[in-house]
Here is the input.
Amino acid sequence: MTGSGRDRLRELLDAVLDEDHANLDDMARGAFSSPWHFSRQFSLGTGESPVALRRRVMLERAAWQLRDGCGVTETAFAAGYTSVEGFSRAFSRAYGYPPSTTGSRALAPSGYSHWLPAPNGVHFHPPMHLWVEGDTGGYGRGVGAGQVTAQMVHHDLDDTRILLNAASDLDIGDYERVRFPGLVVLEWDGPEGSIAQVLGNLVWSKQIWLASMVGADEPVRAGNDVASLCKQFDVIAPQWAEAVRDIDRRNAWDDRLIDALCDPPESFVLGGVVSHVLTFAAHRRQLVRHMLRAAGRSVDNGDPLEWQRGASPHMLGDEPEGNPT
Here is the structure.
């Protein structure tokens, strides 16, 4: 975003991203325009409202800062949020995992994994710059499909966490009771007739597939007790979300991986891997719901439509609670 001349769009971007411009009125004054005219000009030029772009770029900067070692509280206020809770909700909805789990660059498959879907290719670029993607079919282009994938991944992770929490205080008898004798979802995963078995495979499937996707050694599978599964899930959820986001940013859905963890090794298309994990995760989440109800628990339907009402503001155009922008 550098050059010898200035244009009106650049001036509008500067007005949106100025640290002192906390709301639309401030942005418009900085661009010497009325709020209505400013918003219309900006939206026509970028395909995104001023408030939505500022919010998204500030979240991208926050993700980078967290991976660089900054604390959640200081990052929240630097991003313009008036409470850590509001920031945590917005971050979790945008990235699919809470900011407290973003403490290591090792989670990032690439240097740009803090980028969120953008209709204009404008992103935060460290330490204090913007990056504008070219028309290469990357993460800033064809964003409609990317948003659907992101919503499916984030809903799956959020819903899995809800089910783990719902099962956390079951007595061991209810948790391990075989309610569907002989039930097998996938032959190589073994029987899944109990809540413990289904939740175990729900978490494990992401662990084993991610290891194949990033070329890691086969992970060690821990127990199926809720405490162990929650601990595993806290690690794997942000890594899985980052890996899928990186595939989408690079438009690598047709790339192939050779899975050396299979015997014999097999070749898989990345898009097929993600579809496979999401398909059987959805099936398993509903199985757990049936079993929880049989155990006397009241649970919702896991409907993405209901979840979406509180989903990522940058996708839906709603403003997050506690954000002054």
